[in-house]
């Protein structure tokens, strides 16, 4: 018996390779993503600058950076008032003096109630021993003024400064140089007028 001849085997077709992927499409996607990230960073940066500028109130660039410690955490300058301790005042008895007469003025007088701010209660107590001389010096300073000298705020501030220097000098602290904006460093920290009436 004759066997039928098998037809020759067909060669298997070669696997078809997929066309090469579009490299340009992937590259374009990467560029778009990078540009998008850069754009987002730029917008956030500009927004942050605007917020910082708004918060700084237009202050100069010499202001401390936003990440600096708050001012309360920094040590206070030595001349600042210590807010943790209430101030101590030495209250003086009221003063009534004749003011220096001006031309055409028939004489006026001043009634003033004065308080002295001091660093501690011990200083306030020790001032009592000097009170006759303190009152004398204050009386002399008040009587040397005219009504015009003490009607305005500037005149009263000058008077308060003169009283402070006089008392600190009396207590042994040298007066500041003439026309100096600083006061002597004596125990009298401030002179306050609780009442100031010109009649």
Explain this structure:
- Helix content is 38%, strand content 14%.
- The chain has 5 helices and 4 strands; from the N terminus they run αβββααααβ.
- Helix 3 packs antiparallel against helix 5.
- The protein has a domain at 88-198.
- The chain is α+β, with helices and mostly antiparallel strands and 199 residues long.
- It is elongated.
Please specify the SSE layout and strand pairing:
Layout: H1 23-56, E1 88-91, E2 95-98, E3 109-118, H2 121-126, H3 131-143, H4 147-151, H5 153-170, E4 190-198
Antiparallel strand pairs: 1-3, 2-3, 3-4
Question: What attributes does this structure have?
Answer:
alpha+beta; 199 residues
Q: Which secondary-structure class do the elements indicate? A: alpha+beta
Rounded radius of gyration (Å): 43 Å
Shape: elongated
**Approximately what portion of the residues adopt beta-strand conformation?**
5-15%
Q: Outline the low-pLDDT stretches.
A: none
Q: What share of residues is helical? A: 25-40%
Count of helical stretches: 5
Overall mean pLDDT stands at 80
Major sheet details: 4 strands, antiparallel
Straight-line distance between termini: 156 Å
Give a short summary of the structure.
The chain has 199 residues and is of the alpha+beta class. It contains five helices and four strands. The chain has a domain at 88-198.
């Amino acid at each position: 018996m004759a066997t039928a001849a098998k037809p020759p085997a067909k060669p298997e077709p070669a696997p078809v390779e997929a066309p090469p992927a579009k490299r340009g499409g992937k590259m374009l996607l990467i560029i778009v993503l990078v540009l998008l990230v850069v754009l987002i960073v730029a917008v956030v940066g500009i927004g942050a600058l605007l917020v910082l500028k708004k918060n700084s109130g237009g202050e100069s660039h010499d202001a401390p950076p936003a990440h600096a410690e708050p001012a309360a955490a920094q040590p206070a300058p030595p001349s600042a008032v210590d807010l943790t301790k209430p101030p101590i005042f030495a209250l003086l008895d009221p003063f009534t003096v004749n003011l220096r007469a001006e031309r055409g003025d028939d004489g006026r007088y001043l009634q003033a109630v004065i308080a002295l701010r001091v660093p501690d209660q011990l200083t306030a107590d020790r001032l009592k021993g000097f009170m006759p001389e303190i009152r004398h010096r204050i009386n002399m300073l008040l009587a040397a003024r005219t009504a015009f000298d003490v009607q305005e705020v500037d005149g009263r501030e000058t008077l308060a400064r003169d009283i402070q220097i006089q008392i600190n000098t009396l207590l042994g602290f040298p007066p500041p140089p003439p026309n100096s904006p600083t006061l002597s460093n004596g125990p009298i920290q401030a002179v306050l007028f609780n009442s100031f009436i010109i009649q």
